[in-house]
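Quick one, T. Sequence first:
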Amino acid sequence: MTNSTQKIDTVEHCVDVVLATVGQHIKLGLPLGLGKPPEFVNALYQRAKADPRIRLEIYTALSLEMPSPGEGLQKELLEPFFQRVFGSYPGLDYMRDLRKGDVPANIQVHEFYFKSGAMLDNNLAQQNYICTNYTHAPRDILARGVNVLAQTISHRRRHDIDEYSLSCNPETVLDILPAIEKRKAAGEAILFIGVVNEHLPFMGNDAQIAGSRFDIIINNPQYYTTLFAPPKMPVTTTDYMIGLHASALIADGGTLQIGIGSLGDAIVYGCQLRHQHNAEYQGIMKALQVEEKWGDLIRTDGGLGTFEQGLYGNSEMFVDGFFTLIKDGILKRKVYEHEGLQKLLNEGKLQETLRADTLDVLMSEHVIHSRLRREDIAFLNYFGIFSPPVKLDKHTVITASGQSFSWDIHDDANRKALADACLGKQLKHGRIMHGGFFLGQKSFYEGMKQLDEDTLEAINMTRISYVNQLYGDEQVKRHQRVKGRFINTVFLAHMLGASTSDGLDNGRVVSGVGGQYNFVAQAHELEGARSILMLKSTREKNDHTQSNIVWNYGHTTVPRHLRDIYVTEYGIADVRGKCDSEVAAAMLNIADSRFQPELLKKAKQAGKLSASYEIPEVFRHNTPERLEQIGAQFRSKGLLPAFPLGMDFTVEELLLARSLKAIKAKAERKSVVAGTLLKTLRGGNQPVPEKLLPYLERLKLVEAHSLQDKIARTLLIEELEGALK
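Structure tokens:
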């Protein structure tokens, strides 16, 4: 810490300093997701809201909101749940006002990524959206003239020294800081603010940052509020079938990127099952006819066996699914941030366990010089090849115990003597995970804080330019990211290979490009890599089922020349490098059979399939009913649980949630409502069976007074009695 770093106790005082330093036109840069410091952001927003002379521009992405509990019975169920899950998380005032349309004219909120679908009907958010790739966001934020950066950070005190970490969000800040510091050095008024929340895991490596780089640090326990933790959603049969097919495309010894949500959880569960219960995994794959339909592709690009070599994670988002794979010993393949070393490991010329000939190999492969230089010594010390570390004094290598050796390792006897005296046992600083940001359940954050030092050191939260693209450090990335499987989600796939994931054809933004395009393009640049785009084959809209595989669409996120692999619940379409008739045929094979005839007709009308083409018989039975039968078969054996990676709901809450969903569906049928009304009027407030009392107490329905509540009570009792049989 230097004298130039101010320690401030309150966010209100910090706002005073911001205004005094940068003036009344504030351009605030905030990280994506969890890394926003809500108390400071709210204090600054409220100050600007109260004073129209202040102009506040906010540049960020994925502003996290607590969901609304709704009304009536849903509110009674969800309010206690939200209080338990979200705790003291204060939320973001600008989002609350944005929802109400109350953001004043002197404040603008610009985001480059929305929570999926959250802002479709918000005109102001749509107008202020900035379309940019995740890797370009630092450049674009800098171009807008950002003059305040603020971030939630982690802190620890070690050896009587305060240490700080960017923790969950080093991704954009590490790419922005060099330019910001250069501008500050030139005399520009810019502030970098860190607000400590000690609930955040302390991440070392690239995420650890010197306190002197901050202009202001706020460390006040009143701001150690609950970390935002999105609740887990159940994994459906459709999710599972997509995830299981995708898991068969992941190559042992390879590289993995996945995202958050039920589809990501399904992939992780598929990997767990494949590794820990392989016979059961093989049984599901046989039921899905995976070998019969896509055996050649899986043998060349994936696998159905266990993960003996393990996987390495390289993902913009370090989700709790990766944490699960670490605990299960699947995410264990270490990579090293050095081109020459990683290349030799890939080729099998070196092993992580060091051998007597390690120095021989490093010298003969020109990774180190035959006369050791300072950079060679630094390399050998850092990666544990020399352990304990040695020093170089002119032409002499000096060990920790005081032994001396010549710098000339071309001499066989000297090299052997040096190895005997200095060689370590195991390589150090291997990484099993490179991530840009993290977000997950409360148990994920707590689990990260409890990880042993070696595992935590193997996780490197770092800049987004390192994770999401090949440019910069390209050769080392190529050697690390072998057999890359970059798995992302889209909501529409076009029959000729393009896809849509970020927006509608009328220009309205659903989410954002984020890093998806980067990973898709990267898969085409890396030898042996594949881009896997997942989608559910259908969706429900206005009580009608529609196909998510379409002939064409008025907006594209991933162009058709970057087509690669698509996965739906019905299987896999490998469309990379295929001609248009092959692409159309493959996409038909994974479409829902209710929509195959119309899609086939359009392909023929466009001349992309011959008039005589017919869908193979084995692909004509793509129905939800068939998949549900397969799912039920394996659920009866204890497989495919609704919450494979843990759940936030209690068993009671889960049963009530399912019951309320069933009641809502019944309430839409007039005949059911009429019958229930008659039954209610006849029965009145009959005594509740004792086993149902806790459920009705939770919803305050033990006694029902209004007619609406009485009907709901009757329906709920019926649902619960059926569920608890």
